[in-house]
Design goal:
single chain, about 230 residues, alpha/beta, Spore Coat Polysaccharide Biosynthesis Protein SpsA, Chain A, two-stranded parallel sheet, 7 helices, disordered C terminus
Length: about 230
C-alpha cells in the first residue's frame, strides 16, 4: 500500500517536525527500500495498491515485475479491505499487506507471516503503540477493518476482536515498530546506523541529513526490538 510521494499527502505527522521537501524524499526512500524488501521474499508476487490518481506517478518507482493496482473506497479501512478483495477472492492465495513504515523489517518476519497463513485465517504484526505493521489473510472478510480505531492505540485490539467475532483463527508475528513520529524516525536512524543494509536508501538519506541541516537531523533515543 502506497501513495505518490507528494508534500502534504505522505508522512503528515513528520511534516510537523521537518520541512515538507525532506519528508517527501524520506518517504521515497522508505518506499523504495520496502519494495526491495518485498521483492526479496522467494516465490511471491509483489503488488502496490494505491489511489488510482497516484498510480502513474508511482509507476516510475516500481521495480520490474511489480504490479500497480488501484485501491477502492476512501480511508485506510477501505484500502485494506480492497487489498484482500482484489487478491484473495479465489481463496487460493496467502496475502500479506504492509506499507512503507517499516522498511527495516527482517525478511524472516514476512516469511513467518506467510507461514502462519498456512494454518490460520489471519496474521498480524503488532507495534508497541497498539497498532500493527502488517496484516495478512487468505480470504476477504467483510467489516474486518473498523475505521474508527485505525491509526490509534486500539487498532490491533479492534482487529483481533473483529476476527474473534467472525470465528477466524489468527496468530501474531514478532513485535516491531513503524515510522510515524519524529521519535520513531530517531529509532530508525539508530537501527540503520548499526545495520544500514536493512534499508540502504533510507540509511544513506539519513546519513546525509546532518550535512544539510544538523539542527533537524533525527536523534536516536530508546531501544529497538531485539
Amino acid at each position: 500500500m502506497a501513495k505518490a510521494p507528494r508534500a502534504g499527502r505522505v508522512k503528515t505527522r513528520l511534516s510537523n517536525e521537518y520541512p515538507a521537501t525532506v519528508v517527501v524524499e524520506l518517504y521515497r526512500c522508505l518506499l523504495q527500500d520496502t519494495l526491495a524488501l518485498a521483492a526479496s521474499i522467494a516465490d511471491t508476487e509483489v503488488a502496490v495498491m494505491a489511489p488510482p490518481e497516484d498510480l502513474e506517478e508511482l509507476a516510475a518507482l516500481l521495480p520490474a515485475g511489480v504490479i500497480g493496482t488501484p485501491q477502492r473506497g476512501t480511508g485506510l479501512a477501505d484500502a485494506l479491505s480492497s487489498v484482500f478483495e482484489a487478491f484473495t477472492a479465489d481463496r487460493q492465495r496467502r496475502v500479506v499487506a504492509f506499507n512503507s513504515d517499516s522498511p527495516h523489517l527482517p525478511p524472516t518476519v514476512l516469511d513467518d507471516a506467510f507461514a502462519v497463513l498456512l494454518t490460520h485465517d489471519l496474521v498480524a504484526g503488532p507495534t508497541d503503540d497498539g497498532g500493527y505493521y502488517l496484516v495478512g489473510a487468505t480470504a476477504p472478510h467483510a467489516n474486518l477493518f473498523d475505521p474508527s480505531p485505525l491509526g490509534t492505540s486500539g487498532a490491533l485490539a479492534a482487529l483481533l476482536a473483529n476476527a474473534r467475532s467472525k470465528q477466524l483463527t489468527y496468530a501474531l508475528t514478532r513485535d516491531w515498530f513503524d515510522v510515524d513520529l519524529a521519535s520513531d524516525l530517531a529509532r530508525l536512524a539508530e537501527a540503520l546506523g548499526r545495520d544500514p543494509s536493512a534499508a540502504p536508501r533510507t540509511a544513506a538519506y539519513l546519513r546525509s541529513w546532518p550535512e544539510r541541516d544538523r539542527s533537524q537531523a533525527p536523534r536516536a533515543s530508546g531501544s529497538d526490538p531485539a
